[in-house]
Amino acid sequence: MESGQPLIEFKGVTKTYQKGTHALNDVNIKIYKGEFVFVVGKSGAGKSTFIKLIMREETPNAGEIFVNGYELSHMRRKDIPYLRRTMGIVFQDFRVIPTMNVFDNVAFTLRVVGASQREIRRKVSHALSMVGLGNKARSYPMELSGGEQQRVGLARALVNNPTLIIADEPTGNVDPNMSYEIVELLTEINRRGTTVVMVTHEHQLVRDFNRRVVMLENGRVVADNSEGAM
């Protein structure tokens, strides 16, 4: 475990939804810069809520959350976009825009923040080459396999050089071989210094990649294994 300031810290975090669902219950966790952490647990264990709280899509009923130097519980709405620019998100359902080619899908977030054309060309080319799609820049999502579409999602998450990648079930809609390729790519990104938090239900993947594992059950952390063994 690294010393110093955690990149993500949950202090006594409890989240209950309006309908009474207890999603998280007194969760305490620290994730440090440069770590690769798998978050596992059955459906309803609190994994999605954990991710939504990190992204500031939800706020806790009790406790404090710190991400990348931001205190999320009392964050002003206008500061949320700045928090999100420090992270890249990879979704299970790819979230590619079908009417845009691969280059424009990856460039989208850079255009939103007003990057120059030159910077966009450089960063998109670099991100696409990192995920092995350098020759697919002009292709459209419908011309790609599911695994390739997920690589587009990964390139888009990487393009702004985030300090943190959140991968929410990124292998849920691809075949087993591609699942390994996606996690290998995330591992390579992590080796270059980016912190990775990956939610998954695929225990074989978790065993094979041997990283820190945080297990949630009924909204509580029931295991936090730095060695990665399940």
Specify Rg, calculated over alpha carbons: 17 Å
Q: How many beta-strand runs?
A: 10
Helix count? 7
Distance between the termini: 18 Å
Give me the side-by-side strand order of the main sheet.
6-7-8-3-9-10
Low-pLDDT runs: none
Helix content estimate: 25-40%
| Rough outline | globular
Measured by DSSP, the beta-strand proportion falls in 25-35%
Mean pLDDT: 92
H-E string: EEEHEEHEHHHEHEHEE
Largest sheet: 6 strands, mixed
**Structural class category:** alpha/beta
Description:
- The two termini are 18 Å apart.
- The chain is globular.
- Strand 1 and strand 2 form a beta hairpin.
- The protein is of the alpha/beta class and 230 residues long.
- The strands form 2 sheets. Strands 6-7-8-3-9-10 form a 6-stranded mixed β-sheet, with helices on both faces. A 4-stranded antiparallel β-sheet has the order 2-1-4-5, covered by helices on one side.
- Helix content is 32%, strand content 25%.
Q: How would the blueprint of this fold be written?
A:
Layout: E1 8-16, E2 22-31, E3 36-40, H1 47-54, E4 62-67, E5 70-71, H2 80-84, E6 87-90, H3 102-112, H4 117-130, H5 146-158, E7 164-168, H6 176-191, E8 195-199, H7 203-209, E9 212-217, E10 220-225
Parallel strand pairs: 3-8, 3-9, 6-7, 7-8
Antiparallel strand pairs: 1-2, 1-4, 4-5, 9-10
Helix pairs in contact: 3-4, 3-5, 4-5, 5-6
